[in-house]
Each structure stands twice: as C-alpha cells, then as structure tokens.
From TrEMBL:
<dbReference type="GO" id="GO:0015689">
    <property type="term" value="P:molybdate ion transport"/>
</dbReference>
<dbReference type="Pfam" id="PF13531">
    <property type="entry name" value="SBP_bac_11"/>
</dbReference>
<dbReference type="InterPro" id="IPR050682">
    <property type="entry name" value="ModA/WtpA"/>
</dbReference>
<protein>
    <submittedName>
        <fullName>ABC transporter substrate-binding protein</fullName>
    </submittedName>
</protein>
<dbReference type="GO" id="GO:0030973">
    <property type="term" value="F:molybdate ion binding"/>
</dbReference>
C-alpha cells in the first residue's frame, strides 16, 4: 500500500507501519514530504491508499472529495516546544513541563532573541499568527528566520543560524546541538493534531481502514509517546 505524509510524522509512522505488519496488516510505504506538497499531490489525484496530514489539511481534502471523510481519524497530538543551541554533539532530551510559566515569558524571550527560528507547516504558521496577535511583528519581524523546506529548526539551532527556536517537540527530541527548554505554556500552546484518512484513489479501501484502525488503537499508544507525541482525546 502507498501513503503520503508530512515530514512531522515520518519517524512515528515508520514505526507504526512496522507494528501494523507485525499485527498481520498490509505493509504501507510512506512518502514523507512537505505538508503543502503532500496535499497538492493528493488533490492532483496521485494513486495513494492512505494520507497522513494535519487535521485541518485533511478536512479540506475531504471536503473536496480527495479522501474519504468518514475515514478521517486523529492519530497523534504534537506540541510546539522552545529550544536553544547546546553542545554540538549533545542529544536533546525531552523536558518536563512548559518552557515558561505563561505567555508573558514567551514574549520576553522573543524580544531578547537575536534570531528566531520557526518551521514551515501549521506550527510555524500558528507561531507567526500569534506574534502578529501580540503586536510584536514590527519589533521582531526582521529577526524571524523560517527554516527551509525539509530542514528542521533543530539544524538551524545546532549550526548557530538562530539562537531561539520553535518547533514540534517530536522534531527536536534527540537532535544534536539542541537544548529543549520545554513546551509552550497553556495560555499560548500551539498544538497540532495529525490524522489519517483513506485516499479516494485507494486500491483496497477496507484494508486501508484496517491499518488506520490499528494506528488509532490503544495498541499503538506506546509508539506515539515514545516519539514524543501525545494521544488525541477521543471525540
């Protein structure tokens, strides 16, 4: 079976698909690319069985008939974390709790930073929107550095291109040269739910649904948390 996903979930999907095979389900080969590119390929009618993207992107594809709306299921919850450079070879570890007590601390950190790294995709878009909402764009806008597509913020931190970085926690954990301060506090949290859906072009929709059901089951929860993702609350 063929699938497409954004880069944010590539590692967890690799393990989830292997676990699905162990459970007796079909093997799924996932092509992980930029989220915008993935959505465009799905909309163009590329033959795929499963699609894994941020929930809002999947909702748009479902509305246009490119994925089966009834099959959309939340799989993982991703939180945005704050990080700074560390020793170049030191791997980042998952921190406990939030980086700052409240949004005021985040605003202060933004004002103090010389170069602020943020990612492409929904988390980066949300960060920029939050900065605009806070009225800080005129003050710090020229210090914002968006990572190039396919280049994680962790790389920018480790290379010294930025001195404060915002990216999904799952993309920062374990990366060398990065010290994770923590996730954003509750009053300015940026959380993204990534979901899966059966593509309209699926060759075997029933088998694709079986794979999704496994990925959404309690049997897969441990894999998600091991990759620093949360498990979305049941709707």
């Amino acid at each position: 079976m063929k699938a497409i996903s954004s880069m944010a979930t590539r590692h967890v999907l690799a393990e989830l698909t292997e676990a699905a095979v162990t459970a007796g389900l079909p093997r799924v080969d996932v092509d992980s690319v930029g989220g915008v590119d993935a959505a465009q390929r799905v909309a163009a009618g590329e033959q795929l069985d499963l699609v894994f993207l941020a929930s809002d992107a999947l909702d748009r594809l479902a509305a246009d008939g490119h994925v089966d709306a009834a099959s959309v299921v939340p799989l993982v919850l991703s939180q945005v974390a704050v990080a700074v450079p560390s020793g170049r070879d030191d791997p980042a570890e998952r921190p406990d709790g939030a980086a700052f007590p409240d949004a005021g601390g985040v605003r202060d950190a933004l004002r103090d930073a010389q170069r602020i790294g943020y990612s492409t995709g929904p988390s980066g878009t949300a960060l920029v929107a939050m900065i605009e909402e806070w009225g800080l764009m005129a003050e710090i806008g020229d210090r914002l550095v968006q990572a190039r597509p396919g280049v994680p913020v962790a790389r920018s931190l480790a290379d010294g291109d930025v001195d404060l970085g915002f990216q999904q926690l799952s993309e920062l954990v374990g990366q060398p040269g990065v010290r994770i301060l923590g996730v954003l506090p509750a009053d300015c949290a940026i959380d993204t739910v990534f979901s899966g859906a059966v593509a309209a072009t699926a060759s075997d929709p029933d088998a694709a649904r079986d794979v999704l059901a496994f990925m959404a089951s309690a049997a897969a929860s441990g894999i998600k948390t091991a990759h620093s993702f949360g498990v979305p609350a049941a709707s």
